[in-house]
Specification:
Strand content: 5-15%
Oligomer: single chain
Strand order of the largest sheet: 1-2-3-4
CATH class: Alpha Beta
Number of strands: 4
Number of helices: 9
Length: about 210
């Protein structure tokens, strides 16, 4: 029979909201969100028949945005899709799990280093009038520093995927992240939005 489906495909990019074209938004949604939905729908009859497992690759970035809101948007959306699917599939004996990795940029190479020059050259004249080149360079350097801090131990995420596929009682969510990343999610989930905005604004100011 058909036992498990892992929706792992994903792409990422960097940029503030007005810096990105509609084409980039469409590509990000097509791969990260609609791609997983298309695959799930194609295999759903077999997964129901054999009481299989469905695993989705999300991210802790579903809880907050820090320079890549476009990626965060798709991960938040796929989590809501999973939440609905998980409840609907219970009656068929199909288990649905979400993997929420922290920063594994150095393991996956999902996001290449950001070039401030390339970003600046792609900005519209309207955006260039609002943001000077120094600001773009500061944001690019900040984001690149986050990428450099990414874990190289991708096996931790793979282990979570295997557990979701083979455990007699798989978790609905597997958060695979550093302690400080989990703390950030905790603050985001439990504290008022104004607190989280203050924390992220402070991080960006540094």
């Amino acid at each position: 029979g058909f036992w498990g489906l892992v929706n792992n495909a994903g792409v990422s990019t960097f940029g503030e909201t007005g810096w990105l074209s509609m084409e980039k938004y469409e590509k990000m949604a097509d791969v990260n969100l609609l791609g997983s939905i298309r695959t799930t729908l194609a295999f759903l009859p077999l997964l129901r028949k054999y009481k299989g497992r469905i695993v989705f690759m999300s991210s802790i970035i579903a809880y907050f945005a820090l320079g890549n809101g476009i990626y965060s948007m798709t991960k938040a959306a796929i989590e809501k899709f999973c939440d609905a699917l998980r409840l609907e599939m219970k009656k068929f004996g199909v288990q649905v799990s979400i993997i929420q990795p922290g920063n594994y940029a150095r393991s996956t190479k999902i996001q290449p280093p950001v070039s401030a020059e390339e970003i600046w050259n792609e900005l519209s004249e309207e955006e260039k009038a609002v943001y000077n080149k120094e600001y773009v360079e500061e944001r690019a350097n900040f984001f690149n520093s986050i990428l450099r801090e990414g874990s190289t131990n991708g096996d931790e995420v793979v282990d979570a995927m295997v557990d979701a596929l083979t455990s007699p009682a798989p978790k609905a969510r597997y958060m695979v992240a550093k302690l400080k990343e989990k703390a950030l999610v905790f603050v985001c989930a439990l504290f008022p939005t104004v607190v989280m905005d203050s924390v992220l604004s402070y991080a960006l100011s540094k």
